[in-house]
Amino acid sequence: TAPKIIALAGSLRKDSFNQKLINEAARFALESGAEVEVIKLSDLDLPLFDEDIEAQGTPAGAQLLKDKLRAADGILLASPEYNGSITAPLKNAIDWASRTEQGAVPAFRNKVTALYASSPGGLGGLRGLNHVRDILSGIGSLVLADQLAVPAIHTKLDEQGRISDADTAEQVASLAQQLVSVASKLNK
Ligand code: FNR
């Protein structure tokens, strides 16, 4: 069967560059034969993590995210960089999804993850990816050694949000294909 891939970006912004980037990665993964679902964090009911809220019951958005991650083989993740690190919305989503019910499998465990970042700046959000990698590895995700940080992203997307720069498109596709290839092995 086709490997199942979840694609998400760590921004809540309507015109998020990282959302556009991961939409493109998702399209390439689909073309490589995967079953792909794009999840937008801004569509989910994900309050700021609070153990008091959790004690009253897991919010619907957090449960949905957890269930979808558990059912997936791989994750395409685009992380914007805020002050050299992970964004609060992404960390919040990871914290919610990391919580396990009694006897349940941790949501990120043994999921292969491909990391992307993009920024209007010159490093493309590369510094933040170190932190994202560390967090995800720590909760059992198999983070691909290869990753992609796209600098000057605002010059590389067209009006439809498609990548207009050929080299960038090739790099985005190549990492997505690698993820699909590893995810299909896990899926066996
Ligand atoms: C930024 N930005 C930014 N960019 C970068 O390359 N390195 C950084 O450390 C930071 N730091 C930072 C902090 C905060 C609080 C904000 C709001 C922004 C700029 C950032 O890359 C830019 O706003 C992107 O457009 C954010 O990604 P999305 O929302 O377009 O996906």
From TrEMBL:
Keyword Flavoprotein applies: yes
Recorded protein name is: NAD(P)H-dependent oxidoreductase
Keywords in alphabetical order:
Flavoprotein, FMN
NADPH-dependent FMN reductase-like domain location: 3-153
Needed cofactors, names only, are: FMN
Which InterPro entries does the entry mention?
A: Flavoprotein-like_sf (IPR029039), FMN_Rdtase-like_dom (IPR005025), NAD(P)H-dep_reductase (IPR050712)
Q: Is rRNA-binding included in the keywords of this UniProt record?
A: no
